[in-house]
Structure formats: structure tokens, C-alpha cells
Amino acid sequence: MKPAALRPLAGEDLVERAQYYEETGGGELGRRFFASATDALRSAESMPGIGSPAIGELIQVPGLRRVGVAGFPCGWFYLERESHLDVVRLLADRQDLEGLLGGMD
């Protein structure tokens, strides 16, 4: 198990996306999103290799993985480090992933 360390933008993404779902679909939807997002992160902590490396390979960010949030069109992006998961962002599938994640370390 490797604990997740959220970068500031990843934490902001989580709060903003949960607020968005709450505002557009009500409190229950916001809570359901938050629970699903944290469950996805816990799964990655338990099995760091679970995330797909496909987007990282596509945008040439070695080691970048994505684990999806069940029931929602978004996912966590992270790098596996020796002692933890370096959680970079929580982004929607339709966002400019290369623009937001390309060139990062």
C-alpha cells in the first residue's frame, strides 16, 4: 500500500468537481461523486499498478497513470513514487489532458 499525496491542484479539482455535481444534481449526487472519487483513490493506493498508463504514454509523460472514478467521466492522474502516489490532478475525460498534463514532472 502506498498512501496518496495530493498535489494542491488535485485537491482543488476534487472540491470543485464535487461542488459542481452538488450544484447541478443536488447534494446526493455531490456526495456520491465524492465517495466514488475517494474509493478510486483508495483502490490505487492498494494496487498502484491498477491505473492505465495509456494517456501518460500518449502525451509522453513516463509513469503517469489514470484510474477512473466509477460512474463519472473523470479520473485521477498519478505517478507512483517509491513511498507514495504523487496525485497530480483529477480531470474530466473531455478536458485537454495533454495541455493540462503535458510537460509535467
Any overview of this molecule?
It is built from four helices and four strands; from the N terminus they run βαααβββα. Helix 1 runs antiparallel to helix 2 (27-46). It has a four-stranded mixed sheet. It has 105 residues and is α+β, with helices and mostly antiparallel strands. The radius of gyration is 13 Å and the shape is globular. The chain has helices at residues 8-25, 27-46, 54-58, 97-101; strands at 4-6, 64-68, 74-80, 85-92. The protein starts with a strand and ends with a helix. The protein has one domain: RelE-like (YaeB-like fold, 2-Layer Sandwich), CATH 3.30.2310. A hairpin with a 4-residue loop joins strand 3 (74-80) and strand 4 (85-92).
List the helices and strands and how they pair.
Elements: E1 4-6, H1 8-25, H2 27-46, H3 54-58, E2 64-68, E3 74-80, E4 85-92, H4 97-101
Provide a concise account of the structure shown.
The protein is an alpha+beta fold and 105 residues long.
User: Uncertain spans, ≥5 residues at pLDDT below 50?
Assistant: none
Mean pLDDT across every amino acid position: 94
CATH topology: YaeB-like fold
Give the termini separation. 22 Å
In which order are the strands of the major sheet placed? 1-4-3-2
Q: Over the alpha carbons, how many angstroms does the gyration radius reach?
A: 13 Å
User: Helix tally?
Assistant: 4
> How many extended strands?
4
Shape summary: globular
Query: Quick one: biggest sheet?
Result: 4 strands, mixed
The CATH architecture is 2-Layer Sandwich
Q: Helical residue percent?
A: 40-55%
The fourth-level CATH homologous superfamily is: RelE-like
How many structural domains? 1
Would you state the CATH class?
Alpha Beta
Q: Output the helix-strand order.
A: EHHHEEEH
Residue fraction in strands? 15-25%
The secondary-structure class comes to alpha+beta
